[in-house]
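Help needed: design a sequence for this.
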């Protein structure tokens, strides 16, 4: 792991939300091989990308009118990851 990189653990439903909402190739390239997995999987994101994802999810809610509970939960989680640098599920729950 490089400096400034965050390991983010994702549930299958979180990966589905990211696949639908996040168009960044760096994210999609990591999510695609995990598409069939029903396990918690980990992706690597740099701090800038975490901040962009948090912003994209917030934008989808505020400007895009998304009211999907999964998008709202993931948006809150990425705000937490951005603030703390901690992508572990156990830290969030």
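Sure. Designed sequence:
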């Amino acid at each position: 792991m490089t400096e400034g990189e965050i390991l983010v653990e994702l549930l299958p439903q979180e990966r589905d939300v990211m696949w639908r909402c996040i168009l960044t190739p760096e994210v999609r390239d990591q999510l695609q091989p995990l598409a069939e997995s029903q396990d918690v999987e980990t992706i690597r994101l740099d701090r800038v990308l975490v901040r962009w994802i948090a912003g994209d999810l917030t934008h989808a809610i505020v400007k895009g009118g998304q009211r999907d509970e999964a998008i709202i939960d993931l948006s809150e989680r990425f705000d937490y990851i951005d603030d703390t640098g901690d992508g572990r599920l156990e830290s969030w729950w």
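The mean pLDDT is 90.
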